[in-house]
Amino acid sequence: MQWLNEPPVWQAGDGRLRVVTGLRTDFWRVTHYGFVRDNGHFYYQEQTGNFTAQVKFEAKYESLYDQAGVMIRLDSANWIKAGIEYTDGQTYFSAVVTREFSDWSVVPAHSTGPVWLRLTKLQSAVKIQYSSDGLSFRLLRLAYFPDAREAQVGLMCCSPEREGFEVEFHDFQIGPPIDQGLHE
């Protein structure tokens, strides 16, 4: 795996990745705010075909827009990030789909411990699911994503309003697509 925008502090080993974010990092394009940011931390591998990526993670969410999760990316204008984001004083399961312009959707997380995110790519669709126990996954988002031959897939974290956001990812895995339909 390799970094896009390597963080100032990180450590990988024993199925874990620990990250401390740099100052004012984010992935966002234009919508509402008018700016483009492409300096978030993204630890990825190249992936072809259809697949499911899954990870368990936890973090110390304290500042507006602190975020961590998974990402699939073709380039700076075509990507999806999904995970937990801190806004309005609480954590939300969050998904941002970007095709030149970013959108954003959230669902209250109601979780204080670790969470699981699952991203499944099937042809030109990406299904994003979340779980609070690692067993029962719920649909967060179904989105179009260009069916390119190769995409970057991995772990993402950002702290748009500060530095020093601490995240720990556990047991990141990519394998054959889990195609159970939209609802388990």
Kindly describe this structure.
With 184 residues, the protein is an all-beta fold. It has a domain at 2-6 and 17-47 and 58-114 and 152-170: Sandwich (Jelly Rolls). It is 0% helix and 61% strand. It is built from no helices and 17 strands. Strands 1, 6, 8, 9, 10, 11, 12 and 16 form an 8-stranded antiparallel beta sheet that branches. It has a 7-stranded antiparallel beta sheet with strand order 2-3-17-7-13-14-15, with no helix packed on it. Strands 4-5 form a two-stranded antiparallel sheet. Strand 9 (78-87) and strand 10 form a beta hairpin. The chain is globular, with a radius of gyration of 15 Å. The model has no long low-confidence stretch (mean pLDDT 94).
In short:
This protein has 184 residues and is mainly β. It has no helices and 17 strands.
- Which class of the domain at 2-6 and 17-47 and 58-114 and 152-170 in CATH terms? Mainly Beta
How many beta strands in the DSSP annotation? 17
**What is the CATH topology of the domain at 2-6 and 17-47 and 58-114 and 152-170?**
Jelly Rolls
> What is the CATH-assigned architecture of the domain at 2-6 and 17-47 and 58-114 and 152-170?
Sandwich
Q: What low-confidence regions span 5 or more consecutive residues with pLDDT below 50?
A: none
Strand residue percentage: over 45%
For the largest beta-sheet, the strand count, sense and barrel status come to: 8 strands, antiparallel
What is the rounded Rg?
15 Å
Shape: globular
SS-based class: mainly beta
Rounded mean pLDDT is: 94
Proportion of helical residues: under 10%
Distance between the termini: 31 Å
Order of helices and strands: EEEEEEEEEEEEEEEEE
Number of helices: 0
